[in-house]
Please model this.
Amino acid sequence: MKRVHEDQTVTTTIPLDGAVNARDVAGIPLAHGGTIAGGALLRSDNLQDLTPADIATLVDEHGVRVVVDLRTTFERRSEGPGPLESDPRVRIEHRSLYPETGGGTDLDLATIKPWGDGVGADLPDETPTVRAYLGYLQRRPDSIVEALRAIATTDGATLVHCAAGKDRTGVVVALALAVAGARREAIAADYLATGDNIEEIVARLASSPTYSAEIRVEDAAKQAPQPGAIDRVLELVDRDHGGVEAWLTRHGLSDDELTALRRRLTGD
Model:
């Protein structure tokens, strides 16, 4: 189901029974014309409750062959194996964006705790959300690079997800779209589109023992994506690192892989 926003960006929702924030980034406009291709990059919230019909939708209809799971080891162990883990057609890659401390979920952002160890302290004028997002880049560049490498090299679609499909997923997808040459306002619109589903996302997470201690249904609005956050992260990467591609190259993604990622997402 496609939704066209006021700025003409497109949100392509994938209706599922066991997830509430799944979508294909297809149709996002590129800065120099054209759009992001379909069947290359999908994003979602937790896949733990997928039904057999959902799996058919993702694997058969949308061609998912790799799932990049950005959740921590703590989250994965608490939730248990997901339905896709037993599907031989799909490879699961675990790429946490948090240090492996034995705990932590993306809902730490509800109280903004980017690991509590000074990450982002050199940017005191930035919002806590922006500092937390930059913390992903500072602490786990390896996971980000491997996530984008999967998108670039997968013969089929790659699905990136975390718990809500908002923060960790939002940063990884934004970086991929930036490499593809998507319009910056369109990248921001895709990030903010999760806000359309925030009540359902929060209700779903609040029902899970893994997340229930950190989240309340009545606080759904506080969990919504923050306007300007992803825009500012990309601005700071441009300012401090010479751009997304330069940052990725510095952390191990080759020029050939960047080209493959761009072609995979644009269909060229």
Remarks:
- Residues 105-118 have pLDDT under 50 and may be disordered.
- The longest helix spans residues 141-153.
- Strands lie at 2-4, 10-13, 23-24, 41-44, 64-69, 91-94, 157-161.
